[in-house]
């Protein structure tokens, strides 16, 4: 007799990321900056995982996700500094955030697809988006100015083999599943 047991294992998906000016994200101390892509630059790999808590879900704005820096135990979060929404890094693994029963709003982003690019909007600060300056070596920020002085649309490309490419046709994140057979 053959029994099949379906296990759903959620794991972060890992992506390289750059903006329309080929600026990639790099760690500079405990913050992220955007620099021109080149062979002597070591860009971060962005980990992305869907949030299981549906409290803040809004399909019109995109998928609810956590964002982290692969292999660094750092997650992106939004906080207010001197009255200004600000993007920060915090030492917490996105899998720890994922496993929490109730999601922490400052760590959540709406991930939406615009054409062939990805956009990340803060859940804690609606209307504020992750952005890069058109000037090199500037911090990755939260901005309300889309497409003016800041780039808020990013190209993602997969960094691990067992995941789909995020595209307009495949914009909804799906759980990875595998089947184990038992005899």
Automatic annotation (TrEMBL):
Q: Where would you say this protein principally sits, based on its record? A: secreted
List locations, semicolon-separated: Secreted
Q: Where is the signal peptide?
A: none
GO MF term (any one):
cytokine activity
Q: Name one Pfam family in it.
A: IL1
Q: Any idea which UniProt keywords this protein has?
A: Secreted
Protein family: Belongs to the IL-1 family.
The protein, known as: Interleukin-1
Whose protein is this, by species?
Answer: Castor canadensis
């Amino acid at each position: 007799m053959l029994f099949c047991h379906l296990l759903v294992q959620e794991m972060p998906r890992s992506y390289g990321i750059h903006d329309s000016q080929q600026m990639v994200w790099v760690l500079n101390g405990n913050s992220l900056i955007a620099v021109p892509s080149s062979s002597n630059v070591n860009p971060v790999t962005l980990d992305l995982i869907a949030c299981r808590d549906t409290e803040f879900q809004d399909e019109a704005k995109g998928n609810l996700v956590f964002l982290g820096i692969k292999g660094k135990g750092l997650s992106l979060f939004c906080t207010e500094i001197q009255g200004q929404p600000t993007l920060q890094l915090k030492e917490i693994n996105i899998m720890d955030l994922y496993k929490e029963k109730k999601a922490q709003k400052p760590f959540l982003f709406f991930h939406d697809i615009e054409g062939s690019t990805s956009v990340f909007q803060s859940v804690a600060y609606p209307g504020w988006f992750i952005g890069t300056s058109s000037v090199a070596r500037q911090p990755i920020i939260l901005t309300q100015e889309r497409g003016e002085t800041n780039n808020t649309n990013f190209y993602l490309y997969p960094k691990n083999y067992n995941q789909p490419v995020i595209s307009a046709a495949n914009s909804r994140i799906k759980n990875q599943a595998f089947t184990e057979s038992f005899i």
